[in-house]
Amino acid sequence: MDVVIVGAGIVGLAVAREMLRRWPRLQLAVIEKEDRIAAHQSGHNSGVIHSGIYYAPGSLKARLCVAGSRALVRYCDEHGIPYDLSGKVIVATDESELPRLEELHRRGIANGVEGLEMIGPERLREIEPHATGIRALYSPRTGIVDYVAVAQSYALDVTSAGGEILTGRAVTSIVRSNDRVILLTTRGGIEARFLITCAGLYSDRIAAMTGAPAEPRIVPFRGDYFVLRPERVDLVRSMIYPVPDPSFPFLGVHFTRRIEGGVWLGPNAVLAFAREGYQRLTFDLGDLLDALGYSGFQALAAKYWRTGLEEMYRDFSKSAFLASLQRYVPELTEADLLPGPSGVRAQALSPDGKLVDDFVIHGDANVLHVRNAPSPAATSSLAIAEYIADRAAEAFHLNEEQPRLYAGADVPADAGSQPDA
After folding, report:
1. Distance CA 143, CA 379 (A)
2. Residues 6+ apart with CB under 8 A from 397
3. Based on the number of CB atoms within 10 Å of its own CB, is 126 exposed (0-12), middle (13-18) or buried (19 or more)?
4. DSSP secondary structure letters along 14-63
5. Using an 8 Å Cβ cutoff, are 151 and 11 in contact?
6. Vertex 194, ends 188 and 195: CA angle to 5°?
């Protein structure tokens, strides 16, 4: 193989698509440990097309989200994928939130987000008749889409261009020998000249197999949703978000209309007891000890312990969850909330307990790693892919219309003991 990409989530597939678009003669494979694509973060999210409001101007998230959202809409138009730029309101319900709302407006304008508008209660009621607030930031270009459908379309692009998508192959170790990379998997070995990892929840562990630094480390946070009872979906027209709380490092519960017509309410954010801990009681001792023993999580927990306890309580208390939602839509009742899905966010933490607030992409002469790509990575996927292809062109010394670089073949599973074979 010329290039192997680890991870068939939306980012890995977008990268594979872009690599083959630029260098159509590359021999490229995407390997995925699950038996299907988009099995984790790409298939367990709220489906929002973010516009780029929240992110620090000049950051990768700001640049790639704004460019990526535009590219994604164009892609959906070209490929017949349903989406809806239904808009979003970020609602302040208290005077103390107004400075933070103004800062979001400033960031959005600086990032080039189109159509942003500060609105009062009357305009808010026009957009969301059942919402209440003293002021809001309106983003008409925020939208919704089915990211599994997008990922499936990317996968079709990859295979149509001659790439392979190999599912059911978990990477167990990686051996680097001279200018080659040998990946040992549960279904044999694969040898390649270049490696790009987009491993999401396991990005730190896969990177460590290549000798990359241990940090930033991934700590999994589960988010649980309720869904609005079908008879009550008219309570929400598009999306209603809170002003981010500085005492809590996530966005907080919100209302999201889905492309299929339902409405999701949430999520909260609690430590997952396993990297694939989609249920409250899903437990993996190794994953849990890894998170609890990490100095970064210990520092985060020490800083946000009170908020963390509140989130844990709300995770088990429907009435507490409802109270958080009623702040924005007072008409909601407990009977309106039905059990919903969950997702796990792969959040990178630094050793001092700070959430890594930007995409992290690094590497060397023949390996590139996507180490931190939580939301808005799905929105940004096409722009992230272009960024990584630019990095690969430089690091891997790829030229336009690059010929096949290395006509390697699958190698046996015990190749790790014979790195020079």
Report:
1. 10
2. none
3. exposed
4. HHHHHHHHH-TT--EEEE-SSSSSS-SGGGSS--EE--S-SSPTTSHHHH
5. no
6. 65
Q: What distance in Å separates the CA atoms of residue 264 and residue 52, rounded to the nearest whole number?
A: 21
**pLDDT by residue (tens digit) across 311-345?**
888 888 899 999 999 999 999 999 999 999 999 99
Fold of 217-355: D-Amino Acid Oxidase; Chain A, domain 2 (3.30.9)
Whole-number Å distance between alpha carbons of 378 and 69? 9
Strand-pair category, 239-242 with 254-257: antiparallel
* Contact by Cβ (8 Å): 219, 27: no
Give the C-alpha separation, 58 to 56, whole Å: 6
Please answer whether residues 361 and 370 qualify as being in contact, where contact means their C-beta atoms are separated by less than 8 angstroms.
yes
pTM of the model: 0.92
Instruction: Give per-residue pLDDT as tens, 358-401.
Output: 999 999 889 999 999 999 999 999 999 999 999 999 999 887 55
In the chain, what are the domain boundaries? 3-42+148-215+358-417, 217-355
* Token reading at 81: 């994928």
Tell me which CATH homologous superfamily contains domain 3-42+148-215+358-417: FAD/NAD(P)-binding domain (3.50.50.60)
Contact 44, 344 (CB under 8 A): yes
